[in-house]
């Protein structure tokens, strides 16, 4: 990635994805973090034995945001409507209701509340703008994150231990 001298010094681009082999089953998450001003890029991935696709989709942004050392402007790019809508639309209502969601006229606990609450903490530490992209449609970083996430759970299965 070439440095972009016109990019703000505090801007980072965070691309994330999650994947699961079975739902539940072994799953992987990945992120690519780009710093346009310096041209630096890093990526990370991991896997869990017994998880769901939605949990893995949440782990990408959690791990990516947790890796940041200072407050940043973050462009978070995800192919997960669950993550995008969760952050932009659902989370404010969940928080107002004590992390409960409406199911008809009944309040029920939010699924994956542990991860949503961790993500909420991390989002508060940064200025985050979420962008949803369509998965498997040729977006280079999204495709790369998908490959990393899938490879992470395949490696887990090959080695029989956490990646």
UniProtKB/TrEMBL annotation:
Entry's Gene Ontology molecular function annotations: RNA-DNA hybrid ribonuclease activity
Protein residues bound to Mg(2+) 1: 17, 57, 79
Pfam families: RNase_H (PF00075)
Cofactor: Mg(2+)
Record text on cofactor binding: Binds 1 Mg(2+) ion per subunit. May bind a second metal ion at a regulatory site, or after substrate binding.
InterPro entries: RNase_H, RNaseH-like_sf, RNaseH_domain, RNaseH_sf, RNaseHI
Reactions performed catalytically: Endonucleolytic cleavage to 5'-phosphomonoester
Domain RNase H type-1: 8-154
Compartments where located: Cytoplasm
Keyword Cytoplasm belongs to the record: yes
Keywords: Cytoplasm, Endonuclease, Hydrolase, Magnesium, Metal-binding, Nuclease
Documented EC number(s): 3.1.26.4
Residues binding Mg(2+) 2: 17, 146
Subunit architecture: Monomer.
Similarity field: Belongs to the RNase H family.
Function: Endonuclease that specifically degrades the RNA of RNA-DNA hybrids.
Name of the featured protein: Ribonuclease H
Native source species: Paludisphaera mucosa
Gene: rnhA
